[in-house]
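Re-run with default settings, no changes from the original entry. Doing this only to confirm the output is reproducible before filing.
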Amino acid sequence: MGGNNPYITQSDHPLPQAPYSIRFLPGERQIVVDPTRIPYSDDGLPGSILEIALGHGLAIDHACGGVCACSTCHIWVREGLEACNPATDAEEDMLDNARAFVVGRSRLACQCVPDGSRDIVVEIPAWNRNLARE
């Protein structure tokens, strides 16, 4: 269901040039990101935490298809936020609607793109863990 949201300015962000890892909490699942394989899936910005997670079989709810039109892919970046692109005004507006407690490290997984300069640790809120597969 991916695509672009025509009502927002798209983020301009650098893609990683070297491999790095994303560790997902809870469960300590770790994914090594190979920048030559981006994009891994169709939802979210290329190189975003959402598209990488989906491409590795890790489900994160995303009702809008990863186009920054909802807040269902809300995550907390526990480590490595400085290696991610800054949140746009559109993303911050969507975070205002997030279901869980929004903190300074809150991001939408569809918009958060690590640059690969360091490893990332991400926590998926309990209400957003999609444990069922169709």
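The chain has a mean pLDDT of 87. The chain has one domain: 20-128.
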